[in-house]
Specification:
The chain is of the alpha+beta class. It is about 25% helix and about 40% strand. Strands 7-8-9-10-11-12-13-1-2-3-4-5-6-14 form a 14-stranded mixed sheet. A hairpin with a 4-residue loop joins strand 5 and strand 6.
C-alpha cells in the first residue's frame, strides 16, 4: 500500500518524528490563529467602546416576570460547612421567596424579601422575624438591597443603579467592564443608606453570549468587604441562556462561600408565595 505525503506527515506528527521546521510552521500558524481570534473579539471595544459591550450585556441578560427553580447548595460560614436544598421563586423587582431544607429533609426555614422588608420563619426554633434589611445585612455582614440580591441570584446586571462610566478591556478570554462610581437612581432611593451606597463593580462577560461569567461588587466605604459571584454551566431556559451553577464568595469578618446548583427552572409562569406564620411561633427582634 502506497502512503500519501499527507498521511506520512500525520504519522510523523503522532510519532513525534515531525521535522523541527514543520513543528515551527505549525506553531506559527497556531499563534497567528490565536492573534486573529483576539483581534476579532477586541474589535467591538476598539470600534464602539464600553457602551456597546454594556448594551450587549443588557440585551442578553435574563428577561422574566416570574421565576422559579429548585436548588442544592453548600454553604461555608467561618469554615463551618452545611448542605441544603430548597426552592427559589421570584416576581421581578418585587418579591423573592426562598425555602431551605436539610438534604432530603423537611423544610426548616422560609424567607420572603421585598424591596423594603424581610420576613423569616424558623421552623426548627419555632420563631419568626418581620422587619427591614438589617437581618440580611447582618447575616451577610454587608450592605445590600433588593436590586443587588436579585442581580446576584440570576446573573443579571443591577437594574436600578446608574450605568456609570464603564471602561472596557479584553481580559484573557473575556470582556471586562469596570466602573468605580455606581449609585442608586434617585427615583429609587428609599433611605439615606440607599443614597450613600456607591459600588465599585467589575463585570466579566463571555464574548460569544455576552452573559455575565463573573461579577465583583465592593462598596466604596467598606474597603475590606466585597462580594464575588461566578456563573457557569449555561443552558437554554425558554430560549434564553441561564447559569445552572453559581458560586459566591463574600469577603468580610466572617467569610461566606456558597456553591449553588439550580434545577427545574421555569420562567414566566405565574406562581404563589405562601407564607403563613403559626400563632404558636415567637416573634424575634434584631
Amino acid at each position: 500500500m502506497i502512503s500519501s505525503p499527507n498521511s506520512n506527515i500525520i504519522q510523523s506528527f503522532l510519532s513525534g518524528k515531525l521535522p523541527s521546521f514543520l513543528l515551527l510552521i505549525f506553531f506559527i500558524l497556531f499563534l497567528a490563529s490565536c492573534k486573529t481570534t483576539r483581534s476579532i473579539i477586541k474589535e467591538p471595544i476598539k470600534e464602539y467602546g464600553a457602551e456597546y459591550i454594556f448594551e450587549k450585556l443588557k440585551e442578553n441578560e435574563l428577561k422574566f416576570d416570574w421565576f422559579q427553580a429548585k436548588f442544592k447548595l453548600e454553604i461555608v460560614i467561618d469554615k463551618k460547612k452545611n448542605s441544603l436544598t430548597g426552592q427559589l421563586r421570584m416576581r421581578k423587582d418585587s418579591l423573592i421567596w426562598i425555602t431551605f431544607s436539610p438534604m432530603l429533609g423537611i423544610e426548616m426555614a422560609r424567607l420572603i424579601i421585598t424591596t423594603d422588608s424581610v420576613k423569616y420563619i424558623n421552623r426548627i426554633n419555632k420563631n419568626y422575624f418581620v422587619g427591614d434589611y438589617y437581618l440580611v445585612n447582618d447575616f451577610l455582614d454587608s450592605n445590600v438591597d433588593y436590586d443587588v440580591l436579585q442581580s446576584i441570584l440570576l446573573g443579571n446586571d443591577l437594574t436600578y443603579y446608574e450605568n456609570g462610566k464603564f471602561r472596557a478591556t479584553y481580559d484573557s478570554k473575556e470582556y471586562h467592564l469596570v466602573t468605580g462610581d455606581r449609585r442608586k437612581l434617585k427615583k429609587h432611593v428609599i433611605t439615606q443608606q440607599d443614597e450613600e451606597r456607591i459600588f465599585l463593580q467589575n463585570i466579566f462577560l463571555s464574548p460569544e453570549s455576552f452573559k455575565i461569567t463573573k461579577m465583583k461588587i465592593k462598596e466604596i466605604k467598606k474597603e475590606h468587604k466585597k462580594l464575588e459571584a461566578s456563573y457557569s454551566d449555561f443552558h437554554p431556559v425558554s430560549e434564553q441562556l441561564f447559569p445552572y451553577h453559581v458560586t459566591y464568595n463574600l469577603v468580610a469578618e466572617k467569610p461566606i462561600s456558597v456553591e449553588l446548583d439550580y434545577s427545574k427552572i421555569r420562567i414566566n409562569s405565574p406562581i404563589q408565595f405562601p407564607f403563613k406564620i403559626s400563632s404558636k411561633y415567637t416573634r424575634i427582634f434584631y
